[in-house]
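Dissemination and training. As part of the outreach component of the grant, students in the summer workshop were shown how a complex can be specified as a set of sequence lines and then modelled as a single object. The example used during the hands-on session is reproduced here so that future cohorts can follow it. Participants entered these lines:
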Amino acid sequence: MQRETQSLSRLRKAAPNSLPRPDGELEALERAWAPPKGWRRLSAVNNTQVGLWYIGAALLFMLLAGLLALMMRTQLALPQNDLIGPTLYNQLFTMHGTVMMFLFAVPVVEAMAVYILPAMLGARDLPFPRLSAYALWAYLIGGLMFFGTLFFDAAPSGGWFMYPPLTSYEYSRGIGADFWLLGIGFIEISAIAGAIELIVGTLRTRAPGMSLGKMPIYAWTMLVVGAMIVFGFPPVIAATLLLEIERAFQWPFFIAARGGDPLLWQHLFWLFGHPEVYIIFLPAAGMISTMVPALARTGLVGYRWVVAALIGVGILSLGLWAHHMFATGIPQLSLNFFSAASMAVAIPTGMQIFAWIATLWRGNVQRSTPTWFLLAFFASFVFGGLTGVMLAVVPYDWQVHDTYFVVAHLHYVLIGGMVFPLFAALYYWAPLVYGRKLSERIGTWACALMFSGFTVAFLPMHLTGLLGMPRRVHTYQAGLGWDALNLVSTLGAFTLASGIALVFVDLALSSRRTRPERPNVWHAGSLEWLPQGAYGVRSIPRVEGQYPLWDNPALAPEVQSGQHYLPGTATGARETIVTSPIDASPQYLLLVAGPSWLPLLAGAGTAAFFLFLTVKLMLPAALGGVIALVACWLWLWQTDRGPVHAPVDIGGGITLPVYASGSVGHSWWAMVVLLLVSGTILSALVFAFYYYWTIAPGPWPPAPDTLPAWPWPAAAALLCAGSARLLRRARQALDRHAHRGLRAHLGIAALTSLSAWMIAIHGQWQAGSLATAHAFDASVYALLSYQGLFVAVVLIMAAYLLARSLAGVLDGIRRVSFEVCRLFWLYTLWQGVFVLAVIYGSAALAGAT
Amino acid sequence: MRAAMTGAIVAAVVGCGQDAHRGAVLAADARAGQAALYAYDCGVCHRIPGVAGAHGAVGPSLEAFGKRIYVAGRLPNTQAMLVRWIIDPPAIDPLTSMPAIGVDEAHARDMAAYLLSLR
Amino acid sequence: MHVARSLIAAALAAGLTATAGAAEQSVHAPASAAAQSIHELGIAMYIGAGVITLLVVAAALVAIARTGRPVRAGWFVLGGGIVLPCAVLTLLLTAAIMVGDALSRTALAPVARIEVIGHQWWWEVRYLPPPAAGTELGRLLARLCGAGVAERARAARDDGGAVRAIVLANELRLPVGYPVEVELTTRDVIHSFWVPALGGKIDMIPGRVNRLVLHAERAGTFRGQCAEYCGGPHGLMGLVVVAHEEADYRAWLANQAEPARKPAGDLRVQGQAAFLRAGCDECHTIRGTSAGGARGPDLTHVGSRRTLAAGTLDNHVGTLAGWIADPQNVKPGNRMPPGKGLQGSELRALAAYLASLE
Amino acid sequence: MSVSIGSRLLLLTGGLLIWAGLFLFSYILAALACARGFADSAWLGVGVVPLGLVLAAVAAMAGLLRLIRHARRLGARVQHARRLDDTAGVSADVARMVCLLAAIAIAWHVLPVLISGTHC
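and obtained this result:
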């Protein structure tokens, strides 16, 4: 704190750099950031390029999934229609839901952040541009193949929440369900990559002076969303792992006859599924909080209330999961807790809505296409939110759960709460891409068509549901009062589709008439409207308020002429400033990675590995895996460049080092985020382990003699502790520049880590425990296998560090690789001890009582 | 009882001239027939345009039925013959799989009117 | 447009009550106290939601239409965002808890027990052999069913076990005015039992037994449907619930407890022969004959049922024939194989035989 | 620095973390009470489960009060020091607002226990 305050006081002066700027400074900057040309463009990693591709890919999936919706609406237009049979229809709604939720909604909000967030924070790029590129390629290639299964009659048909046992090997024999699990795998990868970028990006790459209290609401939102991904995605990662293992190896996690429980899947899925809804909605809310002040030409009313509301939604959303399970027969007592939490989450959402209305009220609103989309948002989202409150009323939910009322509700909150704001955002931020606004006329028409089509399609669906129509039915009997309502909904769906098509026409027409500059067409106050090149802003602005462009009207010319921080490139490479997380005082210069084919290769390799594995082509799968692994290795090899340059003067009397190790470094932060994710996945698996305990009717563990005698786990735990100690020795050797000692300790530590795991698993095995026998054994093996995965990564890391040491690129100063790997390694060891304690400790405890 | 009634109708129809029963002679409502075809679930076995859920493949498709020359391959396709067939198929063809499902005459007439309007 | 939309929302409340009478599967045509209380809760919420939406949209419209004026953040965010929803939601939550509480407490003292087992894609309904005659439940049941039925049902349990009990498919009959406990389980995947006129739904989950008390307060026929997606033709998994006055119910139950009628007339005798020749008995039971299959529905009194193929077709000799001949067309994916190899006249005879099993 | 951002995030989210703790406690208690059948057991005429839940809620509310006082002191200190930067002031305000949300959530959380008791 003390250091931060001092450096801040230095900021309160005139523009930090003086004019004129030296010759060639701008040219050098342009050279460093020059985007690759021609077919090499695919190797681009810069956020403005990758962000656009990412948005485009997500919109493509929206169109594809939308077409599926139109097919379904056509089938449902008439009662007892036989246009589409149940087999295809079940695939259609499964794919529609899955693609919309996982391949459109989550990616598109991350994509928007990849594109906008760095500019809004005054950063030149994201901290890990290649990670974003990798996430994009894995997602795009994997997603397209996933969608392609529809053409081979191999698409999943278990519904987008895939409840077992319907989706287990007995009732879904094809590979459709495996493809679903695979498709989700890609989005898990890209979501976690996104969370790392969002958290490290917002906390560490803000413009100097942009303290937490001046951070744009959108950045706050994406920080909260990043945290929600960290705690929200792991349950579904755990669940998909368990289901795939059950399908492939018959470990009975969800099979009641062998001690499993299908409800465990529902708990894990909705532990993710409800936060997921807010992971989709909050970014939209963040965009609204950005657009509303700009359109109303006044600051957001109640900034602090809105920040509190974001935190409120983020945390409260973790306590709602069972409101999707009111009809499963869980005790009334528990249901009421979830009912109360579901109502509590309405409050922060209401706070945001009233903050926006107050802002519009205070301001002089520009009437334009984004404004109309925001109006559509208000009308539909408020109603959708209120039907959500109705669903939180337990007895009412018993009636309308799994009916078209729910279908109507979820489309009201998702289209109303996310698609309308997204389209407002497309129109609002389009000038950043096109240099001009999109067509007002087409935009207004599109909005009118979309909103009226949406209303005609989905408002009657509430009634259809109340008249008793369940969801996910491929057809329905005539004469139940549903016929006319369904026909109307179908007409509405096509109207909505025509509105969306109109937007794409507008985008296509405008792309032929782009202009190079980015005019601040809305007279907005946030940094993304500064003049920018491929390098982002010419100089990184000093921020003094929540709306820097309003606070200092001369900021744009100052920034463009190079009067603010880092007006060129100090090292000749791509750079951005890393600042302290609270007060945003500059700390060091981050050397940003440039164009590379490796992320594309690694992404394609990852996609190929999983896809070929699914269709059981082992050789190509292995090839894909090797490609991915080698590409990642090479890519990481290039990142830890060491202090390649003397400390740099960025202006205003601030001199920054170009290399930082330890807990200041951005890689260290990324690893911490990754470990938080890993720890949460572990908790989900531990939750599963104890869950079987609570539902077990008989003794627990079910067959105590299938647990190994205590020396086995004790030996394994001791080896873990020993390995941690060796790792400490290795670090001491590194401090002393003792290379041989470092290598020896690393090697032995790796072997001890491995043998600890092997002893644990062997102990379990020789006690006669079979993973296919009972859910208890399966969950023990699941925990041990999860640990095994980490040990495998540790072995690769050890090899990597040894290779770096032998190549002479690891020493007492150039040591970020070592520190990051060490963090993961230590975590793995303690995770091992914890897993052993959970399994054998609680078994002993249960045996004692 | 039903057989007697059917016999009477057949007699009446046969008594008419060939041309007379080409056109619709018996009072009937094609729209009511459409509803009746749905209500009696004829679509379980037949494909019938305009009737919800009528995409059966047990019996012949009744698409463009008005253009047919014969009913069940043996009776001339007139409204009266069709009525007779609908009411009691086994009486005409003992080997048929189409059962007499108890359609009353008024409904049968309406059904026939609708089917003959399909062209 | 938004105004129109909100008006619709308000009109909906009134409209629902008016039109719902016609619809057999409507949430808003209650025939039990449980469904009635949910119905009333719903109407109150529709009106509230309509009014709130209208107010918020009006506020947004006014805000956009007018030029700027000063606002106090506290009034909007604290008043509109916290105080208002707190008041409304506290009321709603209290009402929700009280209604939910009342509904889950009606589980006391049911007079009859019925087991409903979900199958892909039909419902097996078993009338459980009643408790011993001495118990209070037994006395109540004896009064309700007539001692003879109870005796026969108990005898059925004692000889040959549950297979020989009263088993129906896709149809549930209840006595008006008596609470009946339904035990819900599944033979394969998750299903959900839902008869809107009688109250909310509850899932049928492998490894669990869920219970629901049905308490019809008026006679009538109500439609229900599987509400949890269960694969394949999930949309064609309907259920008919008939609530009878006490005397009718008693007569019906007495009839159901009897074994199947002997076929009368040549056609039906031929039909019974065709039933066995075609191997229908591998999956279907007809009590009183040698047919004892357990994979498909019990057909002992199939002729008395209102529908075929789980609420998909009305039940008469024509639909029986069509269903037997080509079940995959009627309900694609279901487990019944097509009736190939039957002569046309045999099919007719088989249908006539089954239709006669009333 | 990392310590500082950690404690700052803890301050901002503290109120709702208390709620989350209460929620987790109640969820486990309810699940065990219903699965192991002690939901209706009483101790000196007071139900064990409702007593546990209400006591936990009271403790949570007390925790919120402490947190609010802490945040107010932080805010006052910032105002007193007339620091130009308002990060601490914003954080203190946000922390208190989050506590308000948590208080509402906790009140609603115990409402069902008070109205209908803890039968399963």
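Strands of chain A lie at 575-579, 586-591, 648-651, 654-656. Students were then asked to discuss how this feature might be tested experimentally.
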